[in-house]
Design a protein that fits this description.
Two copies of one chain form a homodimer.
Chain A: E1 4-8, E2 14-19, H1 29-35, E3 40-44, H2 46-63, E4 67-71, H3 81-93, E5 101-106, H4 108-120, E6 126-131, H5 134-140, E7 145-150, E8 153-160, E9 165-168, H6 178-195, H7 197-212, H8 220-237, H9 258-264, H10 271-289, H11 294-307, H12 318-331, E10 338-343, E11 346-350, H13 358-371, H14 387-392
Parallel strand pairs in A: 2-9, 3-4, 3-5, 5-6, 6-9
Antiparallel strand pairs in A: 7-8, 10-11
Chain lengths: 393, 393
């Protein structure tokens, strides 16, 4: 006897990414009407709590006393299951039921932790995201992922749990430190280079304004920067939100060599900078393959420079680059699928590692090392290289 | 400016529930071909490990050395996030990648823990379920849920994470203690009463065989019992797998008063027995409403009696019954939606609490107390009085 029954477990969910007005007096209604009369728990970091969270919570709690508030001391290095459990504990204390909602106000780490907690509590409750950083508003905050580190393995434990809405108000960016603007622009350039020449042009035009003073979320170029980036990101993410449809993802641009680089630097090199160095190398590879004109390559690098994004690191050795390609192939169904720009706003995949021979990688690395003002071939900087060897070259 | 973009986050997943042959020499191929050359981690309890797990693992590891094995000391009372973390840690040690698979072999608790771990590891990896108990094979093991207790709140933390397949081999039931057969039959009767008169007839016909000796998974009535229950369960679950489509669920039969009863007994009354007591009360209510004929009601109770399922408990006080109805309405979108049989194999919903006045509840409780040979309340449930449980029947 052989019986077999197929169960269809399709889940239909949709969510809104909304350009909202949350930071004008009495205008938090965009958040309020989504919470309505439900029980809720707002979560933020101490800094965001002080800058925005406490005021936002006060405003919500005035209309709905069942909105609780939790301040969580977080950092990328310490985001763990314990912090997710802390949110679950607060949710239990606040008597959140199945209809309740979590609200994350903050950057990627808070969003990660709250997304996971929302996914765990009573097998999944709603969560609203209010990203306050540029990376959060154009990248980390608008997808459906959340993850924490586990036993020192970065993002080993995670979930896919769509938010019920993402409320984006560029006015939050006013308080963002310049380096975090830079990290956000790195992800924006990623999306611009692979699919949106006009967005790249916008960055090119306004790079100095974006980097010289606090970002003014009332200004049209800033708002266009944010919204256009969101649209590009959503368009790329949507067909493969659960990362189970294809291994060819344009948003992987800048994300092939960067993990090894961040890890080699013990995460001293921030993700945004690592992505920039990765994009620069991938573009140099494209140029050496004859896929990208030197002019276009230089145009890209000029923008990197104006924003202060690095284009090379001695830690990105040939060995690490080749290991990263092997690792990428392992995670991308056997194909390297290196995303390389063929012009500003257009990209292709280099599918096989054989398309990227060692000699080509060496040339690309040397070019970027030289461009960054270094005379040293990057391969010298190996983890086990004794200083004597470095000196001799 | 108001920009809004809707992201479609629909996820298409399907999985097989398969009547498999896993316990014949060299026949674990049903499991083997699903694992193939992937990395895997099999998880079971000490008892199941000794009875089946070690042998199954040996057989798999002979073909694929990348199949690891974890024995986890589990119980319903101690299933927590720590145990999920223990599986995640073992998965990390066994170098499970995104394509890897977890295999749960065992009852509901192991299945709960492994489902959660599979959902967490790298944002979700495959898991295969091999349920070894009757409840697992016809109920807990074939859905998509997993949950653990949190801060003494039962099943507060959980996930929906469809298995990639459920492999059901009734031969596992041979080692199942009689009381666990009883618990399984309670869930089977649940499905039978609300939608499958022929299944109820099968239980009626073979109740003595099912309860008198180890279940023989080679025998046709046992196999039919399991498969028919699975089909009924799958049909009921599928349209509402994520419990977000409707609050009218026939599978809630027996699950309105049972949570309070289990809790009041400090979980000394097992879920299966609590469900039976709940079904008996719901059916008595139906009879008192004139929805179920006394004949049909007596026919049901006769089967309960032959199986040894309880039909009343002094812990199920009028107060607890009324609180349960209020609680049900809170969880079922404002409606009580009490499932009551109108005949063997057919059921209806009592939607409003006003349809079930206190006087009716009192009569129904008194009827079942009398039927159980009690003058209310002659017997005291104590942790140290296990014989009392059966003595009253």
């Amino acid at each position: 006897m052989s019986h077999c029954r197929v169960v269809q477990a399709t889940r239909q969910i949709g969510y809104e990414v909304h350009m909202a007005e949350l930071l004008r007096d009495g205008s938090s209604s965009g958040l309020m009407h989504r919470v309505a009369e439900r029980r809720a728990l707002m979560v933020c970091s101490p800094t965001v709590a002080r800058l925005y969270g406490e005021a936002l919570h006060r405003e919500l709690a005035r209309e709905n006393p069942a909105v609780s508030f939790l301040v969580l001391q977080v950092s990328e290095a310490t985001k763990t299951m314990d912090q997710v459990a802390a949110v679950c504990r607060a949710a239990l204390e606040a008597k959140l039921d199945r209809r309740a909602v979590l609200i994350s106000v903050g950057g990627g780490v808070i969003s990660d932790i709250v997304t996971m907690a929302a996914s765990w509590i009573r097998r999944g409750i709603d969560h609203l995201r209010v990203p306050t950083t540029l990376v959060g508003q154009v990248d980390a905050g608008i997808g459906i992922k959340g993850a924490v580190n586990f036993e020192s393995k970065k993002n080993y434990i995670g979930v896919f749990h769509p938010p019920s809405a993402v409320l984006v108000d560029p006015r939050f960016l006013h308080s963002l430190p310049a380096r975090h603007v830079r990290f956000g622009l790195s992800e924006i350039i990623k999306i611009a280079l692979v699919r949106d020449a006009a967005l790249f042009h916008l960055v090119e035009q306004h790079a100095d304004e974006f980097m010289s003073a606090p970002l003014d979320g009332e200004r049209a170029p800033v708002r266009e920067l944010v919204w256009r980036s969101i649209l590009g990101m959503v368009d790329e993410l949507q067909p493969n939100l659960y990362e189970d449809r294809t291994y060819e993802r344009l948003v992987d641009f800048g994300h092939t060599f960067s993990p090894a680089l961040e890890s080699a630097s013990a995460y001293v090199i921030h993700h945004g900078d690592a992505v920039a160095i990765d994009m620069a190398l991938s573009s140099a590879i494209a140029t050496h393959c004859g896929l990208l004109s030197p002019d276009q390559f230089e145009r890209m690098l000029a923008v990197f420079k104006r924003i202060g994004l690095p284009t090379w690191s001695p830690l990105l050795t040939l060995e690490r680059v080749e290991c990263s390609l092997t690792e990428a192939a392992r995670h991308r169904g056997g194909c390297v699928n290196l995303v390389v720009p063929t012009a500003v706003g257009r990209a292709e995949f280099l599918r096989q590692q054989t398309e990227i021979p060692t000699s080509l990688l060496e040339s690309a690395l040397a070019r970027n090392a030289a461009g960054a003002g270094s005379k040293m071939p990057p391969r010298v900087f190996r983890r086990s290289s004794p200083p004597a060897e470095t000196a001799s070259l």
